[in-house]
Amino acid sequence: MLEPSGMKWFQTGRYPRFIRVMSTRWQRRVVFLLGGVAVGASAVALALLADRAQAAFALLLGEWRYASLLVTPLGFMLAVYLTNRYFPNSQGSGIPQAIAARELDDQAARGRLVSIRIAVGKILLTLLGLLCGASAGREGPTVQVGASIMFAIGRLSPRRQPGLILAGAAAGVAAAFNTPLAGIVFGIEEMSRAFETRASSLIIASVIAAGLTSLALVGNYAYFGTTPTMLRTGVDWLAVPVCGVVGGLAGGLFSRIVIAVAQGLPGVLGRQAKQHRLLFALACGLGVALCGLASGDTIYGTGYTQVKTALEGGVPLPWSFGVLKFAATTLSTISGIPGGIFSPSLAVGAGLGANLAHLFPGAPFDAIMLLGMVAYFAGVVQAPITAFVIVTEMTENHAMVMPLMASALIAYLASRLVCPEGIYHALAKGFLRREPVAATP
Asked: Which fold has domain 29-218?
């Protein structure tokens, strides 16, 4: 009598092995999906709390406009103290830490850059910075928070999960901006210069889970609203290379300054800034407050409200907005407080585009602003694909895809003339040098 094939398969031990393999695969899928949901919920919570923090600071300025001269410097100093004392490696945007964690092979070394403790500190200190008027964003911190959450969830699994930090970072961008495609592109172009093919579907699943969680909690929205603007005549298209060159050079200058300060300025000034970090943060905070007073209190926070109003309502930005926002963002970034540069960079680019729009009086004002946004952002991060995809998704303007793409590429090339290396990867090397464990090739 012949035995059923299934019984024979079970007796040979192949059936239990098949169950184990399938169990491991489903375990990986569940880890990525649950992580995506957690990242999406964290991004929404940080977004809502960030809006409350900025509103509270605006309310304070409404009561006493010169309060920033006291609150902003002391707030910067407190944020840097808490960062160095209780939450080391949570300073800055958090994206360099996530990149460095991916390149490390030791789990303990990774845990010093991405962990639940750092995620909690990142959220609290980012909110503190916005509460005292820092020109900072919440999107970069969301990347480190997302990477920390995914890494922590992955440690609960008995098997090592490849691509978890990358998935958490990509999900963080997707949930923070409500831009799922930009999250995937950011993971490929910026976080991973060598994308893991075998983990790509799980990373996309994490982005989808984070995006759906954000949609379920706050609904569908375009980050900067919607604008149907487009370039019309041939003269209008001259704005593409002009914005690309000017935005790229300005973005490269910002990156060059931040990298130079992070690596240590030469001479007495550099030594004093390194030895007296609290006083340096205090001075940076005072500089931000002065920029705020000169701008009529428009450069504090992310710059989201000012840019959205200009794009949707056609309200032109003040001529000094771009320059003062650039200075305030630079001071906030080099001070050492936790905070991102995504939204502030887009705001600087919008101000830059508003100034360049005067050179093209017949062109749509908001179209030139979009070109300025994508050019400056591409110049800062040196990730042109991410730049034009994220601006396109945030404004739901697909008519400007080609001009945005061209301007971003020109800006990338111009930026490299000033800053040969991208800001995130250059800063990531600083974190790698501090770790005793060598990075993987």
From this structure: Clc chloride channel (1.10.3080)
